[in-house]
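Quiz preparation item.
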């Protein structure tokens, strides 16, 4: 359309896409479809186009995953580019100041040499006084320039610290799930490998819990995506309340969560899993808009312990198998690779 900027056209396209796929017009959803419409993120484009081709619904959890996978990367890349540009600019400015300081020091040195040479002869008191005035003037000028350089360097140091804080924030945000505040899948993969490496080095144990919200899709379809998001936050809150500082609770994907338990054997992991399962079941879910009690939420949990020859992938696979067994055995239960679970479930 004549007179319409590219940004306006992309904004219009983003809103049209959200309307077509019945997506709530939240800021994150708008940004997601704006980036898709712009075509600047090939991975996002492929994912969305596959969903459209297969007529897959853009549900709340799906959209959260897309935002976590693609928007954070987009923001991180943009911030890194901005920080890199700022640092480059500061380096250029500091180098320019240092170059000027070098020239100033050279001029000061030449001024001192000149005064020293003139003082070598027989000078009248008036001439000596004049030379001293010249020396004082040159020294004061050099002192002013030195203070100016010091101020500039202090300012640059403060800017570098500010940029460092920005990078730290971006680094943390890039490893968090935006909806629940738990570690995201990328962070989970990193932390699990780190936990396994630590266990090998210290000859200790690592246990892994894989958790899944029971009948989440049915609940989501019945009460809507916003209430579904509330359920995800409720479960993530229970996980956060029950893990220690060295452990990691993560949103693995959709309605599935994971907990990495460092230096924890299977027995302790089973007990903790049962505690978490019970805590979730005892929470009352209340619809915020009406205050109505919607009922209870339950989760199924699979627990596995690191084996001697396990890789991260194998450990996840075995914990997942336990999770599926828990769901196929009636849900709202904990299943592990050890018969100890029988006593826990019977309690």
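Solution:
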């Amino acid at each position: 359309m004549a007179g319409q900027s590219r940004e306006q056209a992309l904004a219009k396209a983003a809103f049209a896409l959200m309307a077509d796929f019945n997506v709530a017009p939240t800021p994150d959803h708008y940004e997601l479809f704006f980036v898709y419409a712009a075509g600047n993120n090939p991975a996002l484009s492929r994912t969305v186009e596959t969903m459209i081709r297969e007529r897959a619904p853009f549900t709340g959890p799906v959209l959260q995953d897309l935002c976590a996978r693609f928007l954070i990367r987009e923001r991180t890349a943009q911030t890194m580019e901005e920080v890199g540009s700022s640092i480059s600019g500061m380096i250029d400015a500091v180098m320019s100041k240092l170059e000027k300081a070098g020239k100033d020091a050279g001029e000061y040195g030449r001024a001192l040499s000149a005064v020293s040479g003139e003082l070598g002869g027989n000078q009248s008191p008036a001439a000596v006084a004049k030379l001293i005035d010249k020396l004082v003037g040159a020294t004061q000028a050099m002192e002013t320039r030195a203070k100016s350089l010091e101020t500039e360097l202090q300012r640059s140091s403060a800017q570098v610290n500010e940029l460092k804080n920005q990078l730290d924030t971006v680094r943390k945000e890039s490893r968090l799930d935006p909806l629940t505040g738990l570690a995201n899948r990328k962070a989970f993969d990193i932390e699990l490998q780190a936990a396994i490496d630590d266990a090998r080095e210290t000859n200790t144990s690592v246990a892994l819990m894989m958790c899944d919200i029971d009948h989440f899709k049915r609940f989501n379809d019945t009460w809507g995506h916003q209430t579904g998001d509330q359920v995800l936050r409720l479960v993530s809150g229970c996980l956060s309340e029950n893990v220690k500082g060295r452990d990691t609770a993560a949103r693995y994907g959709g309605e599935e969560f994971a907990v990495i338990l460092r230096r924890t054997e299977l027995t302790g992991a089973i007990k903790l899993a049962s505690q978490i399962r019970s805590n979730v079941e005892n929470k009352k879910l209340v619809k915020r808009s009406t205050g109505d009690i919607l009922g209870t939420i339950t989760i199924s949990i699979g627990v596995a312990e690191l084996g001697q020859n396990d890789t991260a992938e194998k450990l996840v696979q075995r914990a997942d198998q336990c999770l599926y067994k828990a769901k196929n055995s009636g849900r709202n239960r904990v299943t592990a690779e050890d018969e100890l679970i029988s006593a826990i479930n019977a309690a």
